[in-house]
């Protein structure tokens, strides 16, 4: 694919295809966003949460991070990475951190609240994030779980930025 073809190519479709190949859908990520935010934005629906996920997925830098991370997971699953990277990625070594660094590029798209949100979901592993973290059936998801968490964190941050009065009110901060 040359540069002109890349610019004309709809990377969002490619991202959605790659997520689907890893058994991840926007609705699953939207469910995480809904759980993160519905206590602060009381009129939030799962559909609005999923819509926020789609807005995050539409950003080119997010698409690049997802495509890169999922490609590395796929290569690791196929045992095609060079050693010692293969073993490190396959075992999701705790001190590796590159998976979180790629994910962090997504979290900051909507400011520092995205980073805070990511720390929470990376620790608690809600929904599909926890399932991906289990690395079932020999499938490597070292990057996938963090990427999903980052998209959820950014989508939640986006909603907070779009609804500051509701967020402040429900944090107990008086909004004039």
From TrEMBL:
Gene3D superfamilies the record matches: PgpA-like (1.10.3760.10)
GO molecular function, one term: phosphatidylglycerophosphatase activity
Domain YutG/PgpA stretches: 24-161
GO biological process: lipid metabolic process
Transmembrane segments: none
Protein name: Phosphatidylglycerophosphatase A
Organism: Periweissella cryptocerci
